[in-house]
């Protein structure tokens, strides 16, 4: 399948904070998760934000691997005068309250979590450090796909060899293919390469650097298969079209079909 029609509107490749990036009104790959449900889910995306400890862990690993010089701008280690006290004591709670006032909006990492993040980052650099050179980290790209404003923020981009790199924390490298389907990584690989190419740059390959979240923090470098990128492109193109139909013709459909699982029906039929 060929790529959907693309139109270059902006050759920008910008370094910016996540907050500034999120404010820019353009579709991103994470929006396809909501568009898969309906356009109304996307219109109300503030109601469905992903949060939790796993996201904080992933963000900390990303920062320590890709932007270590600014790690302390976004994260702070829970190591303050009085931290060794009994956590149920009044003295500990008072000491922590005073310390938190100095933290600001930075994310607090426990000593144990920081130790885990440090070891995960160390392992990534040992195995994939050579790939994370001669490129740029955490740059945003903006373009149009099929007349729709789109954006992506690549963990790492190597224009010299046309490779987009994404760092993922995962419970199991062995089961990562399930995550490709479940978390939209298939559409991500196609979408990111298409957005970057729409800015006039080279982006022919998409590579995942995977690091497990449990000891010994195994690392694996895996390139997305061409046929899987094509399938991801077909999926995201359908979701772009649903958004376009909504914007142009106010087409809305929140109803999906449901029923018995296929394995049960086959069992009933004696298949």
Report on this model:
Helix content is 45%, strand content 20%. It is of the alpha+beta class and 271 residues long. It has one domain: Lambda Exonuclease, Chain A (Alpha-Beta Complex), CATH 3.90.320.
N- to C-terminal distance: 33 Å
Please state the second-level CATH architecture. Alpha-Beta Complex
Shape: globular
Based on the structure, what is the oligomeric state of the protein chains?
A: single chain
- Calculate the mean pLDDT score and round it: 92
For the largest beta-sheet, the strand count, sense and barrel status come to: 7 strands, mixed
Gyration radius, in Å: 21 Å
Please tell me the total number of domains: 1
Number of helices: 11
The arrangement of helices and strands along the chain is: EEHHHHHEHEHEEEHHEEHH
Helix content: 40-55%
Question: What is the CATH domain class?
Answer: Alpha Beta
Q: What's the count of strands?
A: 9
**Strand portion:** 15-25%
The residue ranges in which pLDDT falls below 50 over 5 or more consecutive positions are 1-10
Structural class based on helices, strands and sheet pairing? alpha+beta
CATH-defined topology: Lambda Exonuclease, Chain A
């Amino acid at each position: 399948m060929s790529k959907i029609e693309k139109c270059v509107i902006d050759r920008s490749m910008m370094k910016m904070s996540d907050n500034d990036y999120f404010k820019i009104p353009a579709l991103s790959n994470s929006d396809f998760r909501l568009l898969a449900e309906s356009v109304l889910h996307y219109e109300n995306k503030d109601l469905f934000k992903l949060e939790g400890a796993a996201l904080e862990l992933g963000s900390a690993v990303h920062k320590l691997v890709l932007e270590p010089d600014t790690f302390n701008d976004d994260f702070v280690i829970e190591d303050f005068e009085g931290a060794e006290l009994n956590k149920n004591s009044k003295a500990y709670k008072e000491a922590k309250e005073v310390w938190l006032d100095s933290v600001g909006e930075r994310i607090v990492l426990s000593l144990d979590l920081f130790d885990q993040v440090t070891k995960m980052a160390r392992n990534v650099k040992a195995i994939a450090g050579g790939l994370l050179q001669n490129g740029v980290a955490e740059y945003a790209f903006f373009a149009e796909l099929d007349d729709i404003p789109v954006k992506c923020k690549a963990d790492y981009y190597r224009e010299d060899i046309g490779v987009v790199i994404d760092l993922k924390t995962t419970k199991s490298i062995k089961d990562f293919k399930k995550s490709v389907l479940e978390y939209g990584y298939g559409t991500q690989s196609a979408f990111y390469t298409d957005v970057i190419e729409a800015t006039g740059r080279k982006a022919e390959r998409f590579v995942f650097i995977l690091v497990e979240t449990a000891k010994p923090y195994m690392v694996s470098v895996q390139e997305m298969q061409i046929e899987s990128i094509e399938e991801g492109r077909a999926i995201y193109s359908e979701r772009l079209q649903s958004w376009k139909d909504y914007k142009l013709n106010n087409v809305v459909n929140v109803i999906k079909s449901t029923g018995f699982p296929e394995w049960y029906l086959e069992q009933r039929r004696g298949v």
